[in-house]
Amino acid sequence: MTKPNTERRIIYPGTFDPITNGHEDLVRRAAALFDEVVVAIAAQTAKTTIFPLAERVALAEATLGAIPGVRVRPFPGLLIHLLQEERAHLILRGLRAISDFEHEFQLASINRRMDARIETLFLMTSDQHTFLSSSLVREISRLGGDVGAFVQPLVAAALKRHFRIGMDPGAVET
């Protein structure tokens, strides 16, 4: 008789472009509830990312590496295939506002349709992160704003490098 898998593992998928303090908060809270949180960084996405996959993985590892029970990995293709590979059936998603729910509900429904064993668990973001999104962080950084309150210093530095913040204002971007 084989021993059933009793490990409580949850998959937290996304592009994490960039990883924010809101993402980190959700991972910390999930790590207190589960044996393992797998932060799964999508290689293929309809979204236009500013960081290549390897850099998104490296930034997530640097941000989350000290949290026990957390593992970061990239994944190609469908999330459902990753869940099968990881022998997991739980997906973690964060909700900031009611506007997030419709899209997340649609994703949860299609995932369950593809594999009836899949459950999606939603965590509300902490109050201080309800406004925070990767796209807002990218826009603030692109326009030269300080994103230090929204991301870890390593991520803020990567954004500055990406957008070449501090370059000569008379220089022409190509």
What structural class do the secondary elements suggest?
Answer: alpha/beta
Unreliable stretches (pLDDT < 50, length at least 5) are: 168-174
In sequence order, what are the helices and strands, one letter per element?
A: EHEHEHEHEHH
The helix tally amounts to: 6
Strand content: 15-25%
Strand order of the largest sheet: 1-2-3
Q: What descriptive keywords fit this protein?
A:
5 strands, 3-stranded parallel beta sheet, 18% strand, 174 residues, disordered C terminus, single chain, 6 helices, alpha/beta, two-stranded parallel ribbon
What report would you give on this structure?
This protein has a 3-stranded parallel β-sheet. The chain has a two-stranded parallel ribbon with strand order 4-5. The relative contact order is 0.18. It is built from 6 helices and 5 strands. Strand 1, helix 1 and strand 2 form a beta-alpha-beta unit. With about 170 residues, it is α/β, with parallel strands linked by helices.
What topology emerges from the helices and strands here?
Blueprint: E1 9-14, H1 21-31, E2 36-42, H2 53-64, E3 70-75, H3 79-86, E4 90-95, H4 98-114, E5 119-124, H5 134-142, H6 153-163
Parallel strand pairs: 1-2, 2-3, 4-5
